[in-house]
C-alpha cells in the first residue's frame, strides 16, 4: 500500500508546471458525447437537441400570456391574488422601494423623486385616484408585469410571488391613504376682472 501511495506522489510531481501530467482515464478529458446540434442515431428524432418532454413546466418561470394592451389588461382582471391573505409587508416594501418608489412616491401618490425633480415630465399613476382604486388585483398584477402607459414591464425583474406582494403593498397604501400634510393643496382660482 505504501508503494502505491509513494508512486502516486512521485508521478504527480513534475518540474514543468505547464504540463498536465499523465492521464489515466482520458475518457473524461476526450468526451465521446454528441455535439448539441449534431445528428444522433440514438435519438428518436435523429438529432441530439430535442425539445422538453410534453407537459414539462419550467420551475422558475410563469406562463404570463398577456401583452401590454388594454384588452389583455381586461383579461388579466380575472386573475385571483393567491397571496391576498399572505401579505409579507417587509418583502413587499423592499420591492416597492426598489422598483416603484422613485416614480410613484413613498405613499403611492405619483410624487416620486423622478417626477418631483422634473427629471421625468410625465406624471406616474397615483394609486389613490379612482381609476387605480377600481382596478382588480389581476389588473394591477398585469400592469406591474407587462407595463402600463409609459411604464415598462417589471415582469423580467420580479418573481410572480414578489409581483403579488407588490399588489398587496399597493392595496395597503390605498387603505392608508395619503397623509394630510402631503396632500397637494388645490390651486386657488384667480378672480377674473369683470
TL;DR?
By secondary structure, this protein is mostly helical.
Question: What would the average pLDDT be, to the nearest integer?
Answer: 83
**Fourth-level CATH superfamily of the domain at 88-179:** Cytochrome c-like domain
Q: Which regions have little confidence, pLDDT < 50, spanning 5+ residues?
A: 185-194
Give the terminus-to-terminus CA distance. 114 Å
Put simply, the count of helices is: 8
CATH level-1 class of the domain at 88-179: Mainly Alpha
According to CATH, what is the topology of the domain at 88-179?
Cytochrome Bc1 Complex, Chain D, domain 2
Helix content: 25-40%
Quantity of strands, as a count: 0
Structural classification? mainly alpha
Report the major sheet. Answer: none
Which percent range describes the beta-strand content?
A: under 5%
The geometry reads as elongated
> What is the H/E string?
HHHHHHHH
Report the C-alpha radius of gyration, rounded: 30 Å
Helix/strand layout:
Blueprint: H1 2-12, H2 70-76, H3 89-99, H4 101-104, H5 113-116, H6 130-133, H7 137-146, H8 160-176
Helix pairs in contact: 2-7, 3-8, 7-8
